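Page 37, continued from 36.
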């Protein structure tokens, strides 16, 4: 998912990457089903939001939540998220949704190809070496064994939690390590009798036989069951289900989780390790890592796939600007500086949810308090050379509650509905694929100063855009004569304070700094 997202997003900037994938096609198993608001904003920027929403509607209730039960036939224990999109409307033009990875990846692949990506399935990376000028890789056709050499200026490794590329680079993983040897059981069974009006797309299951969670398709006739622990958690085999489970065990666990001995057909048992680790670096020379190669986490909270897509959003525009000569090579250093702290925090939040929802036997000593999902999704703060902060103290926190962000440099630009020619447009849609300067209704001087500056679009409330609700200036924390610059990934890069005089030279210096020129 991280690789296809990177390819698609590079395409929006006119870069046509070569993508190699050793599997014969896109994902065949329905993993990574919970997609967050920020990820939908990324899909919106990539031009696939509508298609993703349509496919989601075929599979799940769009407002389904997350709850815990003794079994499908048993009592409800807790409701973690009653409704997936409650309270989000004022913060974003998008909506959270559930969609399986095997349904999403063909959409990403088709869009990446449409934008010029060369996708080669059934092809593996055999070796690589890098120099000061680029990366030389040997790629191999999996079926024929034929090898060929390719050259590129940069390489992005999205090769999973085992990541041979990361290993070859000598990058360590740090964190909580292995939590459990888990399994995912893909199955068909008619569970519709136990639906009872529920709309949840994720149901955690806790009983004396297992702990884990269901994801059930519409109609409750198929899905998968994740099992993290089975039986007495004081015994080592309880956290090592993957090492001993049989097909007969799978049926037994399905019956225990369903709460009735209905006919079940086990399609596949996937074995995987629940881990919570982040890489010590996301970059080594001209090779960058993203997705599970950079951070691996338990599925609780749905942060894994979402963090991968958001890595891609941060990285793609920076690669494009460096490759296009619009930015200095040091801009790529900001990828690690910005995304690694976010990856580390996502891991801690996933781990906290894993312990509290699935594995309380691990204990809560040193456990980070859970941050609300809305803040986690669209409250991320970046600090790097690609952000010019306001003057004043900085507490160093990784997230800003939405009511406090207010257009602060480093945070995601707030969503405000504006109008152009009578049509609504969100501020989320104004940047990309380039930078944009947004000027307040009395900031004619900033508009005039920015218009001659290359690589910068200019919009002004009251001139090119209308602000019917009068929310723009307050939402971005500026006066009516203020201005902000928003990066291609939608994060505020700079904000004009009241004592800064508008001039083309000021805007030029600001852009040169942000682009590490």
């Amino acid at each position: 998912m991280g690789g296809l997202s990177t390819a698609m997003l590079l395409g929006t900037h006119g870069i046509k990457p070569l993508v190699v994938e050793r599997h014969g096609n896109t994902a065949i198993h329905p993993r990574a089903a919970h997609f967050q608001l920020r990820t939908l904003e990324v899909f919106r920027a990539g031009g696939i939001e509508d298609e993703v929403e349509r496919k989601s509607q075929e599979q799940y209730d769009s407002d389904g939540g997350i709850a815990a039960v003794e079994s499908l036939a048993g009592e409800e224990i807790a409701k973690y998220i009653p409704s997936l999109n409650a309270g989000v409307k004022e913060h974003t033009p998008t909506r959270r949704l559930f969609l399986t990875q095997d349904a999403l990846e063909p959409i990403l692949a088709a869009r990446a190809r449409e934008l010029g990506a060369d996708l080669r399935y059934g092809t593996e990376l055999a070796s690589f070496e890098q120099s000061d000028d680029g990366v030389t890789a040997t790629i191999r056709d999996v079926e024929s064994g034929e090898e060929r050499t390719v050259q590129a200026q940069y390489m992005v490794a999205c090769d999973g939690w085992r990541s041979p590329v990361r290993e070859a680079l000598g990058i360590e993983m740090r964190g909580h390590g292995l939590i459990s040897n888990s399994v995912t059981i893909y199955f068909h069974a008619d569970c519709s009798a136990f639906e009872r009006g529920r709309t949840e797309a994720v149901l955690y299951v806790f009983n004396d036989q297992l702990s884990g969670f269901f994801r059930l398709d519409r109609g409750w006739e198929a899905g998968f069951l994740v099992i993290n622990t089975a039986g007495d958690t004081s015994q080592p085999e309880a956290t090592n289900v993957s090492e001993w489970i049989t097909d007969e065990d799978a049926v037994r666990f399905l019956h225990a989780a369903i709460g009735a001995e209905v006919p079940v057909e086990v399609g596949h048992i996937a074995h995987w390790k629940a881990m919570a680790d982040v890489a010590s670096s996301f970059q080594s020379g001209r090779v960058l890592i993203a997705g599970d190669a950079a951070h691996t986490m338990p599925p609780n909270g749905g942060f894994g796939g979402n963090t991968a897509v958001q890595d891609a959003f941060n990285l793609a525009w920076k690669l494009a600007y460096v490759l296009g000569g619009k930015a200095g090579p040091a801009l790529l250093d900001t990828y690690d500086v910005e995304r690694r702290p976010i990856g580390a925090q996502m891991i801690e939040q996933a781990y906290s949810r894993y312990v509290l929802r699935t594995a309380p036997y691990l204990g809560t000593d040193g456990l980070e308090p859970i941050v609300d999902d809305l803040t986690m999704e669209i409250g991320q703060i970046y600090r790097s050379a690609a952000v010019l902060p306001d003057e004043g103290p900085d507490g160093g926190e990784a997230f800003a509650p939405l009511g406090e962000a207010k257009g602060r440099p480093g945070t995601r630009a707030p969503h405000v509905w504006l109008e152009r020619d009578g049509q609504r447009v969100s501020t989320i849609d104004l940047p990309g694929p380039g930078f944009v300067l947004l000027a307040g209704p009395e900031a004619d001087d900033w508009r005039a100063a920015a218009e001659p500056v290359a690589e910068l679009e200019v919009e002004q409330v009251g001139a090119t855009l209308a602000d019917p609700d009068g929310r723009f200036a307050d939402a971005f924390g500026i006066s009516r004569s203020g201005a902000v610059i928003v990066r291609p990934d939608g994060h505020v890069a700079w904000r004009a304070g009241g004592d800064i005089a508008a001039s083309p030279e000021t805007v030029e210096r600001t852009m040169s700094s942000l682009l590490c020129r």
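The longest strand covers residues 173-188. Flag for discussion at group meeting. The mean pLDDT is 94.
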